[in-house]
Every structure is written in C-alpha cells, then in structure tokens.
Amino acid sequence: MGVIRYGISAAALVVQDKALLLVHHRERGRYDFWLPPGGRLEGNESIMDCARRETL
Question: Which of the four, 9, 13, 29, 45, has the lowest number of CB atoms within 10 Å?
C-alpha cells in the first residue's frame, strides 16, 4: 500500500473582465484538466504568500 502524504496548499481565483484564469495540466494519455493556479506551501510561507507565488 502507498504512503499517504498530507500538506497544506493554496489556490487563487483570478477574475478580470468576467474571465477566469485557469492553468492547463496535461500529460498525454494520463490526464488533461484545467485548474485555478495553486500549489503547496513552501517552508514557513503564509497561505496568502503561497497563493501569490503560484499565481505570479
């Protein structure tokens, strides 16, 4: 059985002129989907700093 890992992540909903910013995640033959920008916290950064880093 695999190891279950836990972590804290953050995402941001960025809207401009009624358009939503999404990031395309794709690996041919495995997955193909769109999500808002986001990711795991690094070190001691805050959730806001993580969301900002992942968005910019």
Answer: 29
- For residues 7 and 41, the answer to whether their CB atoms sit within 8 Å is yes
Question: How many other CB atoms sit within 10 Å of the CB of residue 27?
Answer: 7
Q: Which two tokens stand for residue 45?
A: 């950064």
Where does residue 32 fall: left (phi above 0), alpha (psi -120 to 50 degrees), or beta otherwise?
beta
> What pTM was computed for the model?
0.75
Residue numbers of the chain with a pLDDT score lower than 70:
none
The H or E element containing residue 48 is: helix 47-55
7 phi/psi in degrees, rounded to 5: -160, 165
